[in-house]
Amino acid sequence: DKSVVSLRDTLAFSPGVYLQPRYGQEVRISIRGSGLSRGFHMRGLTLLQDGVPINLADDNGDFQELEPIFFDHLEVYRGANALRFGSGTLGGAINGVTPTGRSAKGVYLRAEAGSFDMLRALVSAGVAGDRVDAWGAISADTSDGDRDHAKRRSFRFQGNVGLDLSDNISTRFYASFNNINQQLPGALTRAQALTTPKMANAASAAGDQQRDIDSLRLQNRTRIDLGAATLELGGFVNAKSLFHPIFQVIDQKSTDVGGFARLDYAAGPVELTLGGEVRNGKAKAKQFVNIAGRRGALTFDADQKAQTASLYGEMRVRPVERLSLIAGGVYADGWRERRVNFSASPAGDGRIGFDAFSPKFGLLFEPSDRVQIFANYSRSAEFPGFGEVFQTIGTPPVSSLVSDIRPQRAWTAEIGTRGTAGIAHWDVAFYRSTLKGEMLQFTTNASIPAATFNADRTLHQGIEAGLDLDVAPWLRLRQTYAYSDFRFRNDAQFGDNRLPVVPRHMYRAELRVGTDALHVAPSLEWVPQGPFADYANRVRTPGYALLGVTGGMTVADGFDAFVDVRNITGKKAIGDISAVLAANAASAIYYPVERRAISAGVRARF
Q1: pTM of the predicted protein model
Q2: If we measure between CA atoms, which residue out of 44, 41, 10 comes closest to residue 27?
């Protein structure tokens, strides 16, 4: 019953998930400070679609290819809870689950329009027979954006076909296509972001900076029932084209292929999960001089290859009723390789490999069917991607291989509880992660996006909390709160300074008054004090409070309408930051929050 533009709109009330819009569908996404300073793409999380990993072979990802309006629901597995998917990252995993012909029979239509010439439409349909079902959806989206030079346009398809081959074997084939075109308005100085948030960065506009993606993904997931055990296996292929004028025109065409298998066994007090996956990719990476968004002279041409693979296992034993002891681990290895065909400046071939084992120990106590108490102690490891290994490709200064960039490793202790009692539904966790070699990025200058370094020792600790109160059938309060204490530990250069980007406190609330027949839901996003913008802790952004409201009503059986108003007061504030070593008044590193926006839409099911 609201406008759904990005993952932020679907996961805003998922405890522990930090989502900060930048522009259009671009958001910063982080769990427990994962990929904290990554100002582009995504790192530190495992993204999956219907249980199949969609991270690229170098373990980075483009979450823009996940269209949230397609999904039936999304699952969030924070930290070591994501081991069931073979994830060994600090943040964990997010799994988007699409409808099937059995769960979404019939036709579903959705259309909405709003501020900044925004238009969005979706049509989906599902059919099911005795042994075959199919579901498919098409969406289209266009908007001028709430800033200059922020137009976007997308056309997407998502579909799947399921076959019951026998009483014990079923398989499902998935296909998705994305055509995404997004102008990049760039970052502003602090003064510009707080006074004239509509404007675009001058260099972004002059270079017609944009990110255009065409991708086609095919995947399969087959399930075999073996009685006490279930075997799932499958594979995928993803072909992608990226046209990305920024400081230069980045032109890449890549193909990633992969496979996975997982065995789940349960007998009496013992449950066991064993699995593995491999992702292999190659890319033709070219760069050109950026002439107002067009290709100029070729400056760089290379063949890039990468592989990431893992084996994992987890055992859960119930020594007594309602208590489970958990032990497991994931072994991962990978390599990154580049062969340079041409470079206008010095650049060489290179290859580097990594490997790590990350164990996990935990317990789960369930005093009742509706309450859980859990604790974990686990290790995580994250390998550098192409952007970290081969930095500032094709632009001076260039090293053939940045061999001193090493994997990021962490030990995390976690304790929490989730459950339901009376009108209350809660999910609360306390965590403390001690990191070695955290990969942190900083903006180098106006033309080169970022460089990466390994910090020595850092600390991520905090609270992830969600509390929903169903006060009455017509009154519901949703709340999330995050306390994020991220800092260096005795660093030679930065001492115990706080890490930039993520604020220490963030609170969100929504009060829904009414029923599906007619309801209104005011909302609040409150950051009492903004985060630091730099590692030197010289500049801190101001806090803010954003007010919004959604409303909806049932017009007829199977037909409803909704309205969504964001930033009602037109608050001017800073939402996201591209961190620098030491900020000053001229640092163009700030992204303003979305300006006041109003949208309305209708939904129909047949």
Answers
A1: 0.93
A2: 41
